[in-house]
Amino acid sequence: MTAAARARLAHRAHGVCLALLAICAITLAPGCAATATAGDGATATELAPGVFMVRGSGGAAEPANLGRIGNAGFIVGDSGVIAIDTGTSYRHGQALLARIAQTTDKPVKLALITHVQPEFLFGANAFRERGIPIRMHREAASLMAARCESCLKNLKLTLGDEAMVGTTMFRPDEVFDQTHTLSQWGRAVRVIYLGHSSGPGAVAVLDERSGVLFAGGLLDEHRIPDVLDSDLAGWGDALARLRELPIRRIVPGHGRATTAAAVDAVARYLSGLQTRVAELLAAGASLSEAPEAASLPDFATWDQYDTIHRRNASIVYVRLERELLYK
């Protein structure tokens, strides 16, 4: 790249961070959220013998849904239970524990958090106060420690003090670095780490007996995936490796229980996003134009298309421009 071209790119990149922050603030504003109503009770659906999904409302966190927008679940083994993700708040963690108790009299042995988004984290203290350990990947735990005080403050502002009563930051009791199998409650559960993908330390959880995969941040169903913390190349590789697993059903991070076809759907979105933004950059479009111009009609009916997709376009634009600048 010539010195003149580099200077032009540097000039265009000036102020990018401030512009991106402004776009994020607009696209994440509560008024842009899809409205969905959810009560405080957690409804569990049995997807396979002993494997339960507790579905979130979808949309964005707001008072009407009490912030319970992401999915959780639990797996009942021969001698105990593992919970997968814990909800947005202390009261959500309590509701999940109550639902487990209504389903089985076996004790909860562990709560495993799959990734760092607020709707999966902050029910943890409801488990910890009962002596149930919280387990996370080490990198996910580090990211949570670095930024989630702010996440929690924002949630309290969005949802109100009553919805978030008793909800506090926490540290996981157990951390890990690699794929491993847990079976101490009499049922083999594989915790799968595929590198930095949808986020640092994001994992999936496969129940070996049933073939049900809790996909966490790696997969959403009919919802725009959030690329904010992602390594897009790593995410693509992780999706390719998920295709090799003996999956019968999937509990996505958001949305309905689905099949392995969701892997291909998310991969198509991520590929289409990168291709479209690269075309805009090559055509000389500015960062401010990217959210509107990077339309992907095939995904326009997906939840959060008008918010998360617009932010994704801005994030990918900045990343691609940075690559050109420092090539």
Largest beta-sheet details? 7 strands, mixed
CATH topology of the largest domain: Metallo-beta-lactamase, Chain A
Rg calculated over all Cα atoms = 20 Å
Strand order of the largest sheet: 1-2-3-4-5-6-7
- How many domains? The number is 2
Would you kindly provide a written description of the structure presented here, covering whatever features stand out?
This protein has 327 residues and is an alpha/beta fold. It folds into 2 domains: 1-32 and 270-327, no CATH class; 39-259, Metallo-beta-lactamase, Chain A (4-Layer Sandwich), CATH 3.60.15. 39% of the residues lie in helices and 16% in strands. The chain has helices at 3-13, 16-27, 90-103, 118-121, 124-128, 138-159, 232-242, 261-282, 290-293, 305-325, and strands at 44-48, 51-54, 72-76, 81-84, 108-112, 134-137, 174-176, 180-182, 189-193, 203-207, 212-216, 249-252. It has a 7-stranded mixed β-sheet. A 5-stranded mixed β-sheet has the order 8-9-10-11-12, with no helix packed on it. β3 and β4 (81-84) form a beta hairpin. Residues 1-39 have low confidence and may be disordered.
Produce the secondary structure layout.
Elements: H1 3-13, H2 16-27, E1 44-48, E2 51-54, E3 72-76, E4 81-84, H3 90-103, E5 108-112, H4 118-121, H5 124-128, E6 134-137, H6 138-159, E7 174-176, E8 180-182, E9 189-193, E10 203-207, E11 212-216, H7 232-242, E12 249-252, H8 261-282, H9 290-293, H10 305-325
Parallel strand pairs: 4-5, 5-6, 6-7, 11-12
Antiparallel strand pairs: 1-2, 2-3, 3-4, 8-9, 9-10, 10-11
Helix pairs in contact: 1-10, 2-10, 7-8, 8-10
